[in-house]
Amino acid sequence: MAAKKLWIGIACLLALTLAGGTLALAGQKHYINGIDANFPPFAFVDKNGKPSGFDVEAVNWIAKKMGFTVTHKPMDWDGIIPSLNAKKIDFIAAGMTASPQRRKVVAFTIPYWTIEQVLVVPKDSKLTVEQVLKGGKAIGVQRGTTEAKWFAEKKGKNGFNYTLRLYDSAPLSVEDMLAGRVAACAMDDAPAKDIMRKKPIKILGTYGMPPEEFAYAVRKSDTELLKTLNKGLKMLMASPKWQELKKKYKLQ
Amino acid sequence: MNEALQTVLDALPYMLQGALVTCALVLASLALGLALGVPLAVGQVYGPRWLNRLIRLYVWFFRGVPIVVLMILFYFGLFTLLEINLSAFSAAAMVLGLTSAAYQSQIFRGSIQSLPGGQLKAARALGMSDTIAIWNIIIPQALRLSIPGWSNEFSIILKDSAVAFVLGTTELMARTHFVSSRTFQHLPLFLAAGAIYYFLTYAGVRGLRSLERRVRIKGYSHGS
């Protein structure tokens, strides 16, 4: 008798877990925004566990104006484009660079931000950009980023001599840098400035990678959503909310 | 020091919610593993030769391929191909469950094979069909014998659940990472996460130990 109850219980548990599929919402369109939650100030998780950040708030504003609801889903950056194409999320608004490689697999909205790639070092470091690139040092980057690709490709050419270390997130690479395991980290200037406010690091400067643009990514087949997001972005960038957001996240 | 403590305390509710997700994930995976593992073990011990080989293949595959690889293969590959729309949580629970079934089947097989062979022969002599004998005589004993090995499996799956973040499930490990990226208090936060995992493991193992004591048959098994 007890065994029977056990099997029924297990069967129920199984059914429950497999029933965790998607809900169909009648009426308003609902989209899921996949974000990298380790990318302040563009996307992160706040004190109360809610997704927050420049991109998150921008999307919330656009959603209200364009008449759809949105959920922000933090996920692993490595899997974010496959998730988009597998329809697990509907778009990506999280400080994503619109690179030519990515354009092969996804579609991008109009650009909304330009960033420069910079090197950061500990505050008391005496290294120059030249020394970091050619002096056989260890450089830390976040895995799956355009800078990671750039460094991997440029290694050994033009006298570039360094060891590349890959991390799950830029903050982690900075922690390792402060622990002495890498000499410098490469990342976008906006998060670099954000980290500079929290940790004793300084920005060395650019290192030769061309400036990049951020845009939202959608599936190539999703032309309707692309139009909606583009419209919303244009509205946002022309409104005072844009300045408000830039000020709030100190992105001037 | 104070800042570190304050950060941990602030983040605790958020992290504990993640611990709930972890628990749900672990329970679902273990349940699937149990439901699948027992039939696999029985099939391997008492089934025909070809079944034995098939099950060995299953076990070899799910034990040999790393869980991260399996998760990505299933979630982005197989499920997308077959157009099965499972949430990240369900997919992670399924993959963990299938892997756990592979390990659990070997635990149960060991227990089954440790029982005296005379039991099944006696059952047959009494006119019981194999099915009835296995269900009513062999399996109850095997399950009791498996509890120690099973508590091992529980603590392993508890740690493996951290890998579910690859698919986007925000369980304890993922949340710890988020908070530490924002606050830069990696060490205190990950220590706190470690402590939470420790308590979960401890609670589970204690629970299983008391289960073991409750189902023990007086005068029959070792130490009673």
What layout of secondary structure does this protein have?
The complex is a heterodimer of chains A (252) and B (224).
Chain A: H1 2-18, E1 29-35, E2 38-39, E3 43-45, E4 51-52, H2 54-66, E5 68-74, H3 80-85, E6 91-92, H4 100-103, E7 107-108, E8 113-115, E9 117-122, H5 129-134, E10 137-142, H6 146-154, E11 162-167, H7 170-178, E12 184-188, H8 189-196, E13 201-206, E14 212-214, E15 217-218, H9 223-238, H10 240-248
Parallel strand pairs in A: 1-5, 1-6, 10-11, 10-12
Antiparallel strand pairs in A: 2-3, 3-4, 6-15, 7-15, 8-14, 9-12, 9-13
Helix pairs in contact in A: 2-9
Chain B: H1 2-46, H2 49-64, H3 67-81, H4 88-114, H5 118-125, H6 130-160, H7 172-183, H8 186-215
Helix pairs in contact in B: 1-2, 1-4, 1-6, 1-7, 1-8, 2-4, 3-4, 4-6, 5-6, 6-8, 7-8
Describe the structure in brief:
The complex is a heterodimer of chains A (252) and B (224). In chain A, α2 (54-66) crosses α9 (223-238).
What does the model show?
The complex is a heterodimer of chains A (252) and B (224). With 252 residues, chain A is of the alpha/beta class. Chain A has 2 domains: 28-114 and 213-248, 3-Layer(aba) Sandwich (D-Maltodextrin-Binding Protein, domain 2), CATH 3.40.190; 117-210, Periplasmic binding protein-like II (D-Maltodextrin-Binding Protein, domain 2), CATH 3.40.190. Chain A is 38% helix and 25% strand. Chain A is globular, with a radius of gyration of 21 Å. The relative contact order of chain A is 0.18. Mean pLDDT of chain A is 87; it is low at 20-26. In chain B, helix 5 (118-125) packs antiparallel against helix 6 (130-160). Chain B is an all-alpha fold. Chain B has a single domain (2-215), classed as MetI-like (MetI-like fold, Orthogonal Bundle), CATH 1.10.3720.10. Helix content of chain B is 82%, strand content 0%. Chain B has helices at 2-46, 49-64, 67-81, 88-114, 118-125, 130-160, 172-183, 186-215. The interface between A and B is large, with 45 and 42 residues.
